[in-house]
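=== RUN LOG ===
request id: a7f3
mode: sequence -> structure
chains: 1
length: 497
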Amino acid sequence: MSTEVEIKFVVKPEVKPQLAMLLADYVIIEQAIKPLSNTYFDTTTSQFRQFDFGLRTRKSLNFAEQTIKTAGIVRGGLHSRPEYNLPLEGDLPTLADFPAEIWPENTDVAQLQSDLVDLFTTDFERTMWQLKLANNAEIEVVFDFGMARSGEHSYPICEIELELVHGDVDDLFTLAQKITQLGNVRLGNVSKAKRGYQLAGLYTPKIKPLTLKMPKVETESLGDIFLATLTQSYTHWQHHEQFYLETKDINALVEVVSAVELIQQTLKGYTNILPEIELKQTELAWLLAELSAVTQASQLQQVMTDNSQFIRKFPEHKRITKELQDLQASYVDFAAIDTLFNTPRYASLMLSVSKFLSQGLSSVKLDSVNVASFANMRLESSWQSVLDSALSASTLNADDYLALHEKLKQNLLIGRCFSHYYSSEKRDKFRLPWQDILQGIDDLTVLQVLMAVAKQQPDTIAVQIEKVLMRKQRSLLDALEQTRHQALTMQPYWLAD
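=== RESULT ===
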C-alpha cells in the first residue's frame, strides 16, 4: 500500500510549454511521455461508490495494473488517499488479489467480482517529470492531456498533478505556488474518476446551501471549530466554483460568495489569537470585491422569475423586463468570471488557503481558549456594533435599513459557527426575525435597483412605475418595522441562562 499526497490543477493546453520551462530550472532525475488508458469499474449497485472506493485498471506500453483507492482525505485541495496497486492479467480487475483487510466488514468479494461493470474510460498522454530538490525532496509532476468517455458522452482532460514522492508537504506547496503564476491554472477538487461518474450519469452535482457540521461539543476545542468552519466553507467554495464553470448558473456564484464571506468573517474573528492569519484578509477582500455584483444579479434574476406578476404592473413592462435583463448581464460578465477563476492571483489565493488547511493548527493558542466564552464574546461584540448603529431608533427608513445590512449579516454569520453551543429553541427564536429582516433588506436593495431603472424612463412612465415601487416599499418597511420592534424585545440567546 502507498498513500498519495498530491495537488491537482485544471489547466489550459497552452500551459504545457510554460510548465516545461519552469521545471527546467530543477534537477530532473527522470522524464517520460507515455499513453495511458484507464478504465473505471463499479458494481451494478454502485457498491464501490458506497464504500468511497475507486477501482480502475491502467494500461500503457508493456504495462498493466489494477488499483483500488480507499477512502482518504481531501483537505483544502490536498488529496491524500491510500491506494493499492497490483499487476493486472487480462481486462478485468481480480478483486481477490487485493489484501483482505481493505474491505469493509462482511463484504462478499466474490459477489462484488461477479457484479463488476465498466463505467467509463480515460485515454490521455501523460508527460512526467520527476524532480529532485536542493533539500533532496522528490516530486513527480505530470501533465495529462486527453479525453474521458462513457458511451456517447465525453469530456476533455487537461490537468497537472503534483505528487510528493519524498520530502515535506511544504515542498509540494512551494512548487505549486510557482505553477499558479503561469496563468490558466485552477486548483482542481474533482478527480478524473468523479468526473467520469458524472459523465456516466452516476453523479449529479447540485447547488446546495452552506451548512456546517461540527464535532461533538463535549470533545471539541476552539481549534476544531476553526478548522471545521474553514474546511467545510472551502469545500463549498470549490464545489460551486466547478458547478458555475460547468453551468454558468448565477446561483452557484452566490454560494461561492457565501463561502468566501464565511471564511473571511471566521479569520477576522481569530486574528487577536492568531495574528499571522490576518495576511489572507487582503486577498479575500479583493475576491469579494471582484464578485460584489453577484448578489444583485441573483436578486434581479429572482425578481424576473418569481415576481413577474409584480413587474407586469409596470407600464411597458416588456421593455422594462428587457432593460432589467440587460442590467443583470452588466452585473456579471460570464467571460470575465471565467477569466478571474483562471488568474494567477485567484489560484494563489486558493492554494494559500489550501496549504493552511492541510497543515492544520500547530499552535496551541486556540486549544487553551474556552469555546463558550469565546463564542459569547464574539457574538456580543458583533451585536453591540449592530446596536450602536441606527437599529434601536424609533423609526427607520429604507436608507437606515440598507446601512444595517453588513453588520447584521456579520452577526448572523458568526452565529452559524457556534450555533451548536446554544439551546436550539432560544437560538432560533432570536435569529429567525433577524434573518427575515436581512431578507427584507435584500428586497429593499432590489427595489432601489428597480427605482433607478424607472428614473431612466420617460417622465409619464417613470411616475407610474415609481408609484408602484413606493407602495411596495412602504408595505415592506411596515413589515420590517413590525418585525424589528418585536425582535428588539428578545434577549440574545448567548446571554440566556
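=== NOTES ===
The beta strands are 2-11, 27-43, 54-60, 63-69, 73-75, 78-87, 116-132, 138-150, 153-166, 185-187.
The first strand starts at residue 2 and ends at 11.
=== END ===
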